[in-house]
Amino acid sequence: QVQLVESGGGLVQPGGSLRLSCATSGWVVSVNDMGWYRQAPGSQRELDATITSGGSPNYDDSVKDRFIISRDNAKNTVYLQMNSLKPEDTAVYFCNADIVVPPLVVGRPYWGQGTQVTVSS
Length: 121
Fold this sequence. Notes:
It contains no helices and eleven strands.
């Protein structure tokens, strides 16, 4: 069974940094686009960043100059380096990936369980 397992969340002071990781477990044919979303209490889930299998990133304007998304295709893992964190970045962060699982030949979306990030002094 394919799963996305996130790690790296926690409590950080404003201006600080955190690095989130999301690893794919299970047997897969390929992992296409991967991304990170956030969901604050009482709000809808919002996209922060995505990255293609070729390594091309795309960012929401709110994080463009502060967050960096990257991936290790050998490990089917995506990362989110979060810098200059603000209290409004407090949310549960979810990773998402389009994964091709045998015997299928097209991908379907998978979600991680979420990891809490709290930015507070």
